[in-house]
Amino acid sequence: MSDPLSQHTDYGQLPLNDADVLDDPLEQFRLWLANATDSHVSEPNAMVLSTVDAEGSPSSRTVLLRAIDTAGFEFFTNYSSIKGRELLANPAAALVFPWYAIHRQVLVQGTARPVAAALSDQYFATRPRGSQIAAHASEQSQPIASRALLEQRVTEIEEEFEGSDVPRPDDWGGFVIEPHTIEFWQGRSSRLHDRVRFVRAASGGWERMRLQP
Ligand SMILES: Cc1cc2nc3c(=O)[nH]c(=O)nc-3n(C[C@H](O)[C@H](O)[C@H](O)COP(=O)(O)O)c2cc1C
């Protein structure tokens, strides 16, 4: 078996030419997300979200992108979870879309804010009933004595809402990450990768630069 720690993948010749990058980085992101989807990247909307705690210590986890609009990148979670509490106290956030299979990554830095309650209600209503029940049963990121206890809570919640719609829990909803930096990384041969970075200008537009690999 080959040693995964000594692998050297050749990232190939697909370039990210300046002339081909769209002026609006959110539009460029949509294009790359479509490419990742067409290339059968597994869960192309999975993104690694980093937050920081009160001591400045960072932590990361995967969440799923559920919408992109002019404001930014939306995902849904429990507001009382570790990430939820950290973002409510300090909105600084970073995202990584790790599309290894196509030798690309997109990096985002930005500011998180909760979405309107009506939007969270709307999205919660589209979730499978099992996920809705789970959102009530799980106090995300809190310790629990056993799996059995969690499953018992699920049974109790199922009984509570039997025959009726499951309402959105008060502490469950969306965040939008409003980006101030978006970087597109395209792997190239001999580690001479292409990096095109957009930084939000004071005018509200985007400044664009090429970074050394
Ligand atoms: C592929 C994948 C997708 C995930 N999507 C979400 C998501 O959209 N929302 C969420 O709250 N957790 C999601 N999770 C679970 C989180 O990674 C994490 O375990 C959970 O949110 C608790 O994080 P926290 O304790 O840091 O707040 C996902 C995990 C994986 C592996």
UniProtKB/TrEMBL annotation:
Pyridoxine 5'-phosphate oxidase dimerisation C-terminal domain span: 172-213
Reactions catalysed, as given in the entry: pyridoxamine 5'-phosphate + O2 + H2O = pyridoxal 5'-phosphate + H2O2 + NH4(+); pyridoxine 5'-phosphate + O2 = pyridoxal 5'-phosphate + H2O2
Transferase as UniProt keyword: no
Binding site for FMN: 61-66, 76-77, 83, 105, 140-141, 185, 195
InterPro entries recorded: Pyridox_Oxase (IPR000659), Pyridox_Oxase_CS (IPR019740), Pyridox_Oxase_N (IPR011576), Pyridoxamine_oxidase_dimer_C (IPR019576), Split_barrel_FMN-bd (IPR012349)
Pathway the protein contributes to: Cofactor metabolism; pyridoxal 5'-phosphate salvage; pyridoxal 5'-phosphate from pyridoxamine 5'-phosphate: step 1/1; Cofactor metabolism; pyridoxal 5'-phosphate salvage; pyridoxal 5'-phosphate from pyridoxine 5'-phosphate: step 1/1
Positions that bind substrate: 66, 123, 127, 131, 191-193
Keywords carried by this UniProt record: Flavoprotein, FMN, Oxidoreductase, Pyridoxine biosynthesis
Domain of life: Bacteria
Class of this enzyme: oxidoreductase
Cofactor remark: Binds 1 FMN per subunit.
Keyword Oxidoreductase on entry: yes
EC number assigned by the record: 1.4.3.5
Cofactor(s) essential for the protein: FMN
Positions of the Pyridoxamine 5'-phosphate oxidase N-terminal domain: 40-158
PANTHER family linked to this entry: PYRIDOXINE-5'-PHOSPHATE OXIDASE, PYRIDOXINE-5-PHOSPHATE OXIDASE
Family that this chain belongs to: Belongs to the pyridoxamine 5'-phosphate oxidase family.
Subunit structure comment from the entry: Homodimer.
Function: Catalyzes the oxidation of either pyridoxine 5'-phosphate (PNP) or pyridoxamine 5'-phosphate (PMP) into pyridoxal 5'-phosphate (PLP).
Name of the molecule in the record: Pyridoxine/pyridoxamine 5'-phosphate oxidase
Organism: Rhodoglobus aureus
Gene: pdxH
